[in-house]
Specification:
Layout (H helix, E strand, L loop, with lengths): L1 H123 L13 H13 L5 E2 L6 E12 L5 E18 L2 E16 L2 E3 L2 E11 L3 E10 L2 E11 L1 H7 L4 E12 L9 E13 L1
Antiparallel strand pairs: 1-3, 2-3, 2-10, 3-4, 4-5, 4-6, 6-7, 7-8, 8-9, 9-10
């Protein structure tokens, strides 16, 4: 028994130091391992952080490059659009300038023609007119035009229209007792540039001359007409014309009313002529020289030419 106890004691003396050494070594190894693991984790975290930073930088660079490309494309489109707009604006300005020059030339020609026509009329009537002084500036010309426009109700020369000559054949439809057959013939109408406004109507002075062939109980009777008057026009479409003077052998009147095709002929077709269609009538207080009042009427068509 005593020998057994000695054996156990020796065993313990041998094992306990070894266990102590082992535990002490274990305590010394754990901090080193911990440090190594921490360093490894730090290096891994740093690598991951660097990778994340690189990815972020790459994403930002890609986005910036894409935005720069879009901005460049839009800038190019804007430059092309501006170039086209500038070209269109330049062409429009060029066209407007050409039209302005053309209008100015037409206005100058119309004014010159009106001045010449006024001088001729004044010479024929034995009147003296003073030449209009040349204005020093465009403002004076505009002021004169406004002043003339405010006095449109006064008798004035329509310089922009000038003279016109019209030939009006007439197809007789009704007649008085003086005629066995309805007279047929032609009336020549000379329209002057003189006129004035009556509210919405334009009145223009004109003269009429004509000759007609008629018959009374198989005897030829050819009345002539000569008169002075004018015509009223509404909106360059509806007109009424009258001349007082000699019809046949005594005082009488001539009337002509209907529609004017001036807008279609001049504005639409650009022709220097006008066509008037309507009813035409003649009345005299002494048609045949025997004190007999009579007259006739029919359909009239007139062709006017401006000059």
């Amino acid at each position: 028994m005593k020998k057994k106890r000695n054996y156990i004691a020796r065993y313990l003396l041998l094992v306990l130091p070894l266990m102590f050494i082992n535990l002490n070594a274990q305590e010394e190894v754990d901090p080193l391992e911990t440090a190594r693991l921490a360093k490894s984790a730090a290096e891994k975290a740093q690598a991951e952080a660097e990778a994340a930073t690189e990815a972020a930088i790459q994403s930002a660079a890609t986005k910036a490059a894409s935005q720069a490309r879009e901005n460049a494309v839009q800038a190019r489109k804007d430059a092309e659009a501006k170039k086209i707009a500038d070209a269109e604006a330049a062409e429009a300005k060029k066209q407007a300038d050409a039209e302005a020059v053309e209008e100015a030339e037409l206005d100058a020609l119309a004014k010159a023609a009106g001045d010449e026509a006024r001088k001729k009329i004044a010479q024929e009537l034995g009147l003296e007119i003073e030449d209009e002084p040349e204005t020093a500036t465009e403002e004076v010309e505009v002021a004169e035009e406004v002043e003339v426009a405010e006095e449109v109700e006064e008798l004035a020369v329509k310089e922009e229209l000038g003279f016109s000559v019209g030939v009006a054949p007439s197809i007789g439809l009704v007649k008085g007792a003086t005629f066995t057959n309805v007279p047929m013939g032609v009336t020549l109408v000379i329209t002057t540039p003189y006129g004035f406004k009556l509210g919405p109507l334009d009145f223009t002075i004109s003269a009429a001359f004509g000759g007609y062939q008629g018959e009374f109980e198989e005897e030829a009777f050819n009345p002539s007409i000569m008169g002075v008057g004018g015509n009223l026009t509404l909106a360059n479409f509806v007109f009424a014309e009258g001349h007082a003077g000699i019809v046949g052998e005594g005082p009488g009147i001539r009337g002509f009313a209907g529609v004017s095709l001036e807008y279609l002929m001049k504005k639409g077709l650009g022709l220097p002529v006008n066509i008037l269609v309507g009813g035409e009538g003649f009345i005299s207080t002494n048609m045949a020289g025997a004190g007999n009042a009579s007259g006739w009427g029919g359909l009239g068509v007139r062709l006017d030419y401006d000059f």
